Amino acid sequence: MDQLNRHSFERVLGRTDVMALSIGTIIGWGWVALTGAWITTGGVLGSAMAFFGGAVLFVLIGNIYAELAAALPVAGGEIAFSYRALGHNVSVFVGWTIVFAYIGVAAWEGIALSAALSYLFPAIVFPWKIVGVLGAIGIAALNYVGIRPTSIFQVVITSGMMLVGFLFFYSGMAFGDMKNMEPLFTNNVGIFSVLLIVPSMLIGFDIIPQFAEEMNIVPKQIGRLLILSIVMCSVWYILIILGAGFAAPLEVRGSGVVPVADAMAYCMKSPFFGQVIIMGGILGIFTSWNGFMVASTRLLFAMGRAKMIAPVFGRLHGKHGSPTYAIWLVGSVCAIAPLFGQKALLWLVNISAFEAVVSYLFVSISFLVLRYREPSLERPYRFSKGAVLSYFVIICLLVLLILYSPLGLDLLKWPHEWLILLLWYVLGGLMVIYARIKCPNITNEERETLIFGESYRRNV
Prior knowledge:
Blueprint (H helix, E strand, L loop, with lengths): L14 H13 L2 H4 L1 H8 L1 H28 L6 H9 L1 H33 L8 H16 L2 H29 L12 H15 L16 H29 L2 H4 L5 H10 L2 H35 L18 H13 L5 H32 L12 H19 L11 H23 L5 H13 L4
Helix pairs in contact: 1-8, 1-10, 1-13, 3-4, 3-10, 4-9, 4-10, 4-15, 4-16, 5-6, 5-15, 6-7, 6-13, 6-14, 6-15, 6-17, 7-13, 7-14, 8-10, 8-12, 8-13, 9-15, 12-13, 13-14, 15-16, 15-17
């Protein structure tokens, strides 16, 4: 086994680091940019109900992840879970799927930053896309120097973002008007449309298993922190929706470029407060950008380490302990994305939500298989009634996938979104072929060790 040269991370992350990475990644910029659209689509209470319903489902999905992440705390989360239950080929597919979900959200952060700055400085004629490119390079450089400075950065800016968000909710409730809450509901189609957005807004809880190998906490705590992050972020979104509903009437929430900022400015009767919200949103852009950079690079690292894709991605920097090649790949994609403009933002959000649901489905199936196939696997965190509730989760996820398709609400449109997906899997296929040419003789036992290490591998 010595020739395998299995690289592994140092355990340096505490509970505060984990929560900041997870919460900052989940919340991001969407609460500023999209809340007005949710309310217009589903109504104030209709949108809040959609997020509550999505939160209930995600707590169940989160419990599935929590049990698996605590039982198998190795880098690459979904890769390890699906490999253990469903085999190599499914694991590669699931890993490549969730990599796109993460990179897709990370890539549109540069576009969101450009939009935020153009709102903040409307009188300045400047190609703000360049700032999006520079921001991507900066986040990649931060990740390059290691997880410790990356996590400190995340704790600081996540705290600032949450402070601004709670200021908005308090202002809306204190200085707004109940009459502004109209419409409370629209129709079933509108509420379901908001529900279909929830996966893209709560994606990020699942980054916790990606860096489980870097946590200096007991495995049981991994599961608890994962559930706590879902609950806290779900409450956050519902509070923001209610705050926006109280803060301003429909004509204000639905007419501006950044509705939450417009609502805050209207409520407080000063454009300054709208700019404060934009600043909080910009902090959210960087928290999400940073978190998805960490998650996607750990996934690529785990796939490279397991020789599923080019082995070069499975190397760590000798000094900083960072997955260098994975960081520069993801950083390059994020740097290019702002050049495609606002249309690309919607494409990437829709595709990322779809890909996240696909990966959640396979993880849920893996959970069920492992419950029956490996009942003796040590599970420090155990999902109560998981064997039964996982069937319910799988059915819900299948329904969501149908709604994304032409058989449902057809959220993914041809040619742009489906073509991007097709090209992504073609690229994945080429990466797999290259890895098999590069490492033609790797055995099941060797791959098992590369994925799980000596502590969690099976005897195969």
